[in-house]
Amino acid sequence: MRAANVYAADCPTRQILDRVGDKWAVLILILLRNDPLRFNQLRRAIEGISQKMLSQVLKSLERDGLVRRRAIATVPVTVEYSITPLGLTLAAAVDPLRDWAEQHLKEVTAAQRRYDAQQQSKAA
Q: Which CATH number fits domain 13-93: 1.20.1330.10, 1.10.10.10, 3.40.920.10, 3.40.50.2300?
């Protein structure tokens, strides 16, 4: 196996970084860190995610070994999602990014406003 080189177009590590860069995946992993949740619990907790998108992201996370899906024999069937030990390591790695975003939201928003104002004055 060839050594990982994230800058190479065909490097599989890019797929993993895509998962880390997916806002929905990050939010799901952080939510599942504490307790297993059912599909609708996740959907209610994450504002703005569609049912289709949640389903797609959960399947991807399960495929990557980050989330475990468990069907519970009820009528109708209940499906519960939990984070795997591997998923916990990724959640621990991305949680500081969430902290950073929350701590620096005002600064980033101010920078965006300044930039937008500069662009508007250039266009005028």
A: 1.10.10.10
